Fold this sequence. Notes:
mainly alpha, 434 Repressor (Amino-terminal Domain), two-stranded antiparallel sheet
Amino acid sequence: MDVSPLRRLRQQAVMSQQQLADESGVARDTISKLETGQRRAYPTTIRKLAASLGVKPGELVGNWEGQPRALIASEGQEQDKPKKKKLGF
């Protein structure tokens, strides 16, 4: 079984998920979910993780488990976020 590019690069950097979280400012739970494919990352998250790992953002997006997988959240996912209500004061 192949591992995600994020996990592979994190392990090559000899970092735990918590160390990467502390370095990047991305929550450890988020890193875990990204590595297991339970969640997709926004472009800003990809940039933070890449900078902390010393790699280009494109290196975090790739194929694993024989299936193409996008680590980056699509436009539709971003639009699904709850919108702030405007108050008419």
